[in-house]
Amino acid sequence: MSHASRYVVTLGCPDRTGIVARIATFLADLGGSIVEAAYHADADSGWFFTRQAVDAASIDIGVDELRERFATVAAEIGPDTEWAVHDSSIRKRVVLLVSKEGHCLHDLLGRAAGGELPATIDAVIGNHPDLEAVTRAHGTPFHHVPFPSDPAERGPSFAQLRELVDSYDPDAVVLARFMQVLPEDLCDHWAGRALNIHHSFLPSFVGARPYHQAFARGVKLIGATCHYVTAELDAGPIVEQDVIRVDHADAVSDMVRQGRDIEKLVLARGLRWHLEDRVLVHGRKTVVFS
Amino acid sequence: MSHASRYVVTLGCPDRTGIVARIATFLADLGGSIVEAAYHADADSGWFFTRQAVDAASIDIGVDELRERFATVAAEIGPDTEWAVHDSSIRKRVVLLVSKEGHCLHDLLGRAAGGELPATIDAVIGNHPDLEAVTRAHGTPFHHVPFPSDPAERGPSFAQLRELVDSYDPDAVVLARFMQVLPEDLCDHWAGRALNIHHSFLPSFVGARPYHQAFARGVKLIGATCHYVTAELDAGPIVEQDVIRVDHADAVSDMVRQGRDIEKLVLARGLRWHLEDRVLVHGRKTVVFS
Amino acid sequence: MSHASRYVVTLGCPDRTGIVARIATFLADLGGSIVEAAYHADADSGWFFTRQAVDAASIDIGVDELRERFATVAAEIGPDTEWAVHDSSIRKRVVLLVSKEGHCLHDLLGRAAGGELPATIDAVIGNHPDLEAVTRAHGTPFHHVPFPSDPAERGPSFAQLRELVDSYDPDAVVLARFMQVLPEDLCDHWAGRALNIHHSFLPSFVGARPYHQAFARGVKLIGATCHYVTAELDAGPIVEQDVIRVDHADAVSDMVRQGRDIEKLVLARGLRWHLEDRVLVHGRKTVVFS
Amino acid sequence: MSHASRYVVTLGCPDRTGIVARIATFLADLGGSIVEAAYHADADSGWFFTRQAVDAASIDIGVDELRERFATVAAEIGPDTEWAVHDSSIRKRVVLLVSKEGHCLHDLLGRAAGGELPATIDAVIGNHPDLEAVTRAHGTPFHHVPFPSDPAERGPSFAQLRELVDSYDPDAVVLARFMQVLPEDLCDHWAGRALNIHHSFLPSFVGARPYHQAFARGVKLIGATCHYVTAELDAGPIVEQDVIRVDHADAVSDMVRQGRDIEKLVLARGLRWHLEDRVLVHGRKTVVFS
């Protein structure tokens, strides 16, 4: 939690010999004290992934110069290398999109207040005004963007949403039970930054009313899935999932209640990992260095 | 475990006032000491379900007379009443259908040997001969029924399978990773007695190679499902499910290995509940008084 | 959830034949439609426990008359019978005792606001003033009762606490990370109504700083326990427990963060079951008809 | 599972800058292709731990020469460095110690037969003869070493046990529900190689009859713990733990049955990690690179 400031390096590239040595030597030459390091060589895709966190106090240069120097290392490793260098002392910004159900909003505001998220929640935007009061009670701005009931007429609302969200330049756009399907251009625009919580254990029960679907099928566990938003509905790369046991005595309303606890946990974990640069997306899948 | 002998009454019927009183009074009038009782009123279907276990020593009459007398009670309750009276001292019979993968077979033979199942495993039938030795080491008969690779030519094999299984008159026919899809007539013939273990968290990943499907989708949990076999593939009433956590470092082979542990547990639980008359099927769903 | 109003009957007594029949017949004679029923015959103690929920609309008489009539039934069953009849339409009252850590408070206020608890939180009392703002933001009264650092001088504070709590006549007094050990007389005074959340999987790590104890021992799971408060520290009847996985990479601060999620869930479940009259205490143990 | 052959390097030492770079450069200079790498810098103890698995086919030299060369690297890193180099193609040897309860034995024999353990089970030694038949059915030698009922007279039995076990020169001595407390000299002699499965969630319920202790306390979860054996009873470094839910309806015999499933899983996981050199012991705790 109250970690000392860190520089976090993430990198993905086609695997070959010597990458770890190259990065480790680069960091050691700077005197960098590594506090966390994780690697993954994916036999299926032939890609290599790593995340390394260095105690910022152990390195004499600032994050900008570190980034500049690391660019040379990354270029040496190969032309397809995808990488980033983050400074954990620069607090990130989150915008939450909500509708009427407040449990995820409430949970995230509480976590932010308790210092559990390495970010500030800069704004909450609702397609209904219901959650304005609880948002403002936390000192957070709330914007109401109404959405017409006719899907064909929602274009202006999405345009307004985009403009509002972008005005905060957020590191994460969280659909905290937003209940509106983002149009393809918004999915592309926020690619890699928009996280959704779906109230089922995907790929089961895609789309609307998953608890009703779960009840009808008679499953013995219900779940929730945190995933990146892509143009294909509920099919983006999965960051985190979890389940809870139900039985024949649980009505849909009981599933809704119990499911909330899992939704909150799964979204909070997924968002924290995203904000701590622990999630590397590759194709339709994620590497999560939790 | 080593329970004293019990009479187990199960009943399902359209719900109405007084059913519990009627059954409880019937049992009390016989001096029956109730050791377990469970009820479920299903608001969705309007049906009522119960399971009651009575200490057999507390009742003077035998199971046949108890069954005869209870028929009158059941008739009074209503014409749609589905019920049964079982004597737990009559050990049940199980036939296992297997292919090449032995983990579920091995696990169930071990549990039967340890007295954990209220049943004997009377025979194992394989479409491959691979598991004959381990089966015979437990003193259990093994039958090899070869299946042609062309699905169109499997009719005689299924006929032989049916005859063999029926010769044991089993209370449960367990597809312990059998890998053959039963034809509709066999599904109907063994309806309510045939249990399958599917190596995914249904309804996700129906059909072949579910671990490969799970790997491709990048899910963070894998599961297994024990369900009754019906004509629609992997769509029968679910008895039990469970999951285990996986991550990006797990190849398909790791999922196969970890999944085995869940398959074994889920099948063992589902089978035990079936054999202890704890599972009441209603439509596409189950009530499990575990 | 938004259940129709119910009368809930709970009963515990030495087991003997005919108890179920007696209660069920009593309810059936009143036309009572049973929506939930659970029984437990405890072989170890020889006691019988039941909880039955009846649709209030199916019975013509009010809860007071029902209670009066049931008293006769209970007396017939035996002199040691412990029983109660509750009306779920009478909303219960909760008082929370807190210190500085706000996660359980925040979670319970959120659940109450979302209609998830069958109760109102009538007051929050803190031995520190830190959580006053968040409490008042929910429109709930907050009282600050300072506790001297010298344990020998805390008598007047406990007296003031007792008076304040009792002024709300609560159905549950919840020690939501209160961090003060109640004196024996308060334990007795609130017996069966005071619930504590302990941040370990009891009986492991009784007393202070359980996460530090867990870290030192190198356990691979950490947990939380909701229990009734008794004079013996952390030894009261357990209502609910759960755990979460940790590993060598988790510092004490990580355990504290992860543990909070389990504390919140376990306390919320335990409190809901208590408020729904699902918990029957017998000696040092509980029967929980969840 | 059918992994290509690997060289596995494990190392623990006081943390300082440059260790990762030194090891990674060493491996890269040999052309080593790293298939798995894990690091842990322990802020509490100030120690650093790593485990790296290299594709053996990517390195021209054999394991002996690799070990010799790595000794130089380890010496450079510091005098307190603890390290090892293993060749995964050299199958390890396991000896199991058992008593009368066969579930863990049965489970491990099944896993070994299925190729799930990177080891052969070379012998089973029982203080009772009960499990001889099932052991021999797997083609594994069984030795019966009787233990007198008087603890004071068990010296010769332990001496015989030691001689027998040592004759197999095992990489792991597994107390698979052995039920005898090893004397201090045997704990020391097999230090780091002897694994026990204790049927509770340690540190709760140390010693005899933990399920009876759990029942008496009324816990809502029961567990199992796999740990290295040390002279202090049930206090050795923990490798793995897990739990399963129980409730008021579970008698001790039900806990025993359900607990078996957790004991099997926990022991199998702990043993596999030990055999794959994933467990680094430091003081009373373990680092498990699972």
TrEMBL record, chains A, B, C, D:
It catalyses: (6R)-10-formyltetrahydrofolate + H2O = (6S)-5,6,7,8-tetrahydrofolate + formate + H(+). Pfam families: Formyl_trans_N. This is Formyltetrahydrofolate deformylase. Transmembrane segments: none annotated. The active site is at D234. It comes from the Bacteria. SUPFAM superfamilies: ACT-like (SSF55021), Formyltransferase (SSF53328). Residues 8-93 form the ACT domain. Keywords: Hydrolase, One-carbon metabolism, Purine biosynthesis. Belongs to the PurU family. Catalyzes the hydrolysis of 10-formyltetrahydrofolate (formyl-FH4) to formate and tetrahydrofolate (FH4). GO terms for molecular function: formyltetrahydrofolate deformylase activity. InterPro entries: ACT-like_dom_sf (IPR045865), ACT_dom (IPR002912), Formyl-FH4-Hydrolase_C (IPR041729), Formyl_transf_N (IPR002376), Formyl_transf_N_sf (IPR036477), PurU (IPR004810), PurU_ACT (IPR044074). Its EC number is 3.5.1.10. NCBIfam families: PRK06027.1, PurU. Pathway: Purine metabolism; IMP biosynthesis via de novo pathway; formate from 10-formyl-5,6,7,8-tetrahydrofolate: step 1/1.
